[in-house]
Protein 1
Amino acid sequence: MTYAFQFGVLNQYRDQLLAGLWLTVEISAVSIVAGTAFGIVLASLRSMAGRGTRIAVDTYVELIRNTPFLVQLFLIYFGLPAAGLRVGAVTAALIGMTVNLAAYSTEIVRSGIEAVHRSQIEAGEALGLTQVQVYRHVVLLPAIQKVYPALCSQFVLMMLASSICSAISTGELTAAAAFVQSQSYRSFEVYLAATALYLALALGLRGMLALLGLWLFGRRAARRALVPVVEASA
Amino acid sequence: MIFHTFGWPQFWFLVQSMQWTVILTALALGGGGIVGFGVALARVSRIGWLRLAAGTYIQLIQGIPVLMILFLSFYGLALMGFQLLPIVAAGISMAVYGSGYLAEIWRGCIQSVPKPQWEGSESLAMTRLQQYRHVILPQALRIALPPTVGFAVQVVKNTSIASLIGFVELARAGQLVNNATFQPFRVFLVVAALYFVICYPLSQLSRWLEGRLHAGSRR
Amino acid sequence: MPEVVVDGVHKSFGVVEVLKGITMSVERGEVTALIGRSGSGKSTLLRCMNGLESIQKGAITIAGHAVTADKAKLRRLRTDVGIVFQSYNLFPHLSVADNITLAPRIVKKMGRGEARTVAEEVLALVGLSDKFGAYPDQLSGGQQQRVAIARSLAMRPKVMLFDEVTSALDPELTGEVLAVMERLARDGMTMLLVTHEMGFARRVASTTVFMHRGRIHESGPSRDLFDAPRTPEMAQFIRSDIK
């Protein structure tokens, strides 16, 4: 092996890489918050509203979960303009990630809701809670607490999948790395650095989510959130 | 450049490209399965440093984007003198990615075999290898089937990332057709539908297996 | 000649010492019952005897084998020492026949035909010849436990250890398991049993060992022990059991 590593090139393009890193953080944060909110709303609608709503939500969830994120991005970024709706690369990424994550979090929260026992709900009603109170305190919050580790794993997967947005020229970390490597021809160093940054982001995100879990649910849930959960739905 | 409209020949081209999606999936599950199985066993080994190494490997693979694995093997190794064909780079990357996730899924399955099964077989004078082969793994396999099929869906979808190094599978074929027809909405809708045709039955199969595992007998 | 010799055995789980110097022996062909409250260390002692738990001090010799940390030696010991657990621990993915023949075939390298003959023989002994092809989940708890006993017997052990084998069973199913054990005792098997079945211990075991707080508190011929306990702890233990 005669190849000489030159990591000095990274310093030269530091600003580009940091800008990309920051955009990755931004689009991940926004889509995680929005995707989870939509997920909770959709899962709740699904469990409370009628048959039609349930079928509509299930269809959405299955369509998203059974098609690649990349193709979803293509449809939004190239397809929507063709249908007369022009969207920028960052907006397309945000829409794509939110729509994708919403489907997964709907599915995860749904599984949590369905794990709540009927007797719990009856106990809540017996205590004189209103239907909304029962739903909030007896169904939804315990459900979310139960599936919090699975949600956390999905958040990390989404953050990592944001690298795919480089394919529609969203200028996040992977796109920044691609730009730097096209300028410097130092592919290995650049992508190694980007990989290290993603790893740091993933570990950091996990740590933050564990702290958030500690704050929201207490010690047990937080500890579970530190360990990756890989399920059929992941 | 001649522009075509999206018609049967283009549709047929997309359908044919699905074979590469399937081949990449098979490479990921086959290669990733072999490596992942070894890592899973290392993860539950009684040797401390082996457990730690396997755990680090899993955390590493699960902590970086599949796309980075792909770029590192394609561009990185190429620069270092290993010129990889896209199919080789894509196949290796998919296998590496698969191994990290399969190892973790299977570790869970091995550990969910009740501890008394270890004691029962141990007190019948079996070696560790015999315990794995005759008692633990056959039971772990049953538990592993539903989540493994579920993970196969993730793999099928993630093979689309190979298009980003120019490997012509279904997603890349869609781009090529789109470049020729300029009908992105129609083209990518068809591409999505073709992925759905592969993934949805697998998802349902995983769900069905999962239900059968919980409802049925333990055998 | 003693088939089991336990000499000054100490065992701790972390800082908790559960066995505080146990010395005892069991003659060949004898049946010894280990009784005592939960937490007295009796199950731990039994598990130490085939190396499922390691000991920190002392020595155990059983069926001519010393209990060691050496894996290969421990496996040789285990081919001569059978153990049956409270939770049966049958292999759920194997038929009754395969449960029984697995270890003889892969550990003792017995041929298929011979293993099958042995399986038929031990199943007849526990009265379950008709369950040859059944799977564990098709059997009652009592039947599963009898298969577990047969599975151990198929290794042709010199000593059999029974760890509360009827504790998980419904009361109406314990009889069939105890009957099998009584028959084994009559046939001259050296047996050590941790049990809560006082009547059974008194009738079948020639010797009973009462354990209390990690020590042997009282031991001797079963009849004497049960009919005229020498220590107040033993007396109270029997009384609370009858109640």
Note: Chain C touches chain B at residues 50, 52, 71, 75-76, 78-79, 82-83, 85, 87, 89-93, 102-103, 106-107, 135-137, 151-152, 155 (CB under 8 Å).
Protein 2
Amino acid sequence: MKASQDLWKKLLQGKIAEPLASEIDAFENEIELRKLGKIDEKVFAETRLRRGAYGQRYDNGQRHDGTESRKLPFADKPTKGPGTVWDAPGMLRIKVPFGGLNPAQIEVMAELADEYSDGIAHITTRQDFQLHFIHIENTPAIMRRLGAVGITSREACGNAVRNVTGCPYAGVCACETFDITPYARAAMLFLLGHPDAQEFGRKFKPAFSGCADQACGLAYMHDIGYIAATQQGARGFKVVVGGGLGAVPRQARVLSEFIPLEEFLPVTQAVCRIYARHGEKKNRNQARIKFLVDKWGIDKFREEVFAERAKLKPDPRWTEYLEAALKEGETALRPGADLPATPANASENLRHWLKSNVKPQRQKGYYTATVALPLGDITAEQLRQFADIARRYTKGTIRTTVEQNFILRWVSGADILAVYEALHAADLSGAGANNILDIVACPGTDTCKLGISSSRGLAGELRTRLATKSFQMDQAIQNLHIKISGCFNSCSQHGVADLGFYGSSRTVNGIKVPHFQVVVGGQWDNNGGAYGLPIVAVPTKRIPDAIERITGFYLQEKQKAENFHSFIKRVGKAPIRKLLDPLVENLPTPDVEPGLYTDWGDPRSYSIGDIGIGECSGEVVSRFQFESTAAERMVFEAGLYLEKGDAQQAGEQAYKAMLRGAKALVQMQYDDVGNDPAEIVAEFTERFHDSGLFADPSVGAAKFATYFFDAHAAAGTGKKFTADLAHQQITEAQLFIDAVHSCYNRLRSAAPAKA
Amino acid sequence: MELQHLIAKFFTVGDSKLDPAQVVNLMHRWVAKQSMPEMLVDVAELLHVPKGPGVIAVGNDADYALDHTDGRWGVLYRRKSTLAGTNADRVVQALRSAAAAAQLIEDEFKGQITVSRHDFELIVNDRALAPNTPATFAAAKADLEAGVKAFLGHADFKLEAQGGDPRRRFAVSVKSAK
């Protein structure tokens, strides 16, 4: 752990908004409790995942060195989760809702990349940031530093609502129906930590798109997608549900052709409640919402959602968030102007950059400039330089993209050449944004536990080969999108690429060889309008050749202006397969071509021995487990207050812990119990105490319930806690919470389905 | 002032003939054989990023790298976990660790790379402990000099704060004639 952990806590005191500050304090305490063995490893795993702290390759303590799998000599400590070593480096995913960032946030990202990671910040295919090689004990300091500039990693992983993505051109795009930014922001604020979105069997990914035709929002491949629409002049959304990539891709189905703006949050809440209540919990391979939509059919699903919507108690946040979000618009720093003529002495790169990376905005005289990042990676120093550029030429209007790039918005045409020069000085002027050179790759075997083949290694190789010739290629080839996933889980979104690849392995001449399945037929446009299918697995070292064959065939056979998706639709997959067959037949032995038996960028003999258990699906932890863990943590915190000499705070915290424990039980029978102590006590009394459910002579539960009732009766009366009284209340709180656990266990044995 | 999480980077001399990608294989061997005092977990190859961190042997307590930050190649040691002892002790530890890695790389790639032991930088990789300010330099200078002196075995060197952008980490450059 860094020596400055506590220092950051003091330095940033009061600078982090609530409830985020308390959330981070709670997580820090949960880390301490796990180190003491006082939190179950599965609960801790899901807890840290919901804070964005994810596992990384080799965190099971094993590593294949090319010859054999060896145990890494980690210290013997409690785990971070099942089979996950405490000290093993992990990844922290940081949410960037709709990709919106400002320079101050980018500077903090640079600091964190420097101090905690490998000097690199990585942009993901869902507009997040990821930092790799992070120690779990450093995460609270990182979260505080992010929190101080309004960023959170909360619910970036785990079975929760993930980052709310959105079209990065929202608000400046000529073809959008309206700017989705404020609504994406409102959805993020509404759903973050929402009680109705805490008990999913799997993750839940929302996306917003400003139009139906373009790719930017990719609404159809999300668990819930919102496409801007109007009806009789009124704004709203076409809402689609049940989309997703992964091993079993699904196109989302239409929940409603039009939901008015004032209804989209309550309808979303209803969808969450239905998914939490009826979605699969035990079999994680069937737990995404798409499977529930499949099982019921969209008509029944729709019926259930709108019936649930009708039952919802009105929530002022449905409109408050919208009103607040609408106030935050973007404007330009400098007067708009048309683009100047390209200078006669302009470099080849500048000419290409102007063509591929600069796009006019809807607002006359303004342009977006895409900063194409190789494999989504950027150094800390480049981040600082980019923050300076954003400040100098714009009001800091930045978005991340699902293609792992930045977009600088509101650049005046008069400044575009100066922006280029500044980006060039920072090694950020790479041309080829959104074309064949702009290859998207997931982390793959570099850092992901599930990686089978090196997606980044292949992407790097392809970039090197294409860099010199991509702009000489036919425009139809330049327009292709290549996306590479290290496994079938689709993190690169290979299913909607023109040319998609996902990692697999095959045994050749008795030896494992890294391969990629070649996927064609996907459609990037129309919000990810169609999914491709695999044709054949090709050895990874033969993939560049495979691409040359496919693109050559396309150029030769395409009809005028026929795009790749239409071309594949017309000619079918069989001729493509025929083209690739020679690349997979009669492969040479290792003595003839040893390189075939290794992966890109990894000299070790290829092995799949490092594949671990993924954490994408998180741990299925019931709401009771979360709530009771929170109650445990609060008792622990009460003890910390007492240690610091604050008996009053200690006593009051112990009471709050009892309330939390009681609420955990009540929620087993009554989902919608609120936070009002009187309501919790009344519900607990009726449902558990008076009913006899709580009574268990073997643990003295009846007596422990009276501790709770006494504490509640004394709360708000101005009771003064001495150290002794606080000590007593903490002890009683712990006994009560133990009895809560005991009651839960008995009820779960009797009725496992509900628990 | 407590100086923890030090980075030491020795710069290469002249034009290196070494293809940095070759170091990947060497570092994989370091991980396989656990060749360094600190446990190593993985190798990160980041050569696609201009002026980036190059190739890193990643550990829990420390990293070793053939680093290209700021466009200068060098062999780098990055201390991640805290160390006991004095500030000067920690300076010596970081410098010796980087020097040991430099030696291993030079031995492996004889004639292809030369790493100076007299031209290096020290960075405190923690902005809370050591913000990049003149005050930090004033407070840390004596300890840094003591550590460098202990490492070099003499006091004939020039140690200067890099200063510059306050957003960057506090760093000093050291040059010695011998």
Note: The mean pLDDT of chain A is 92.
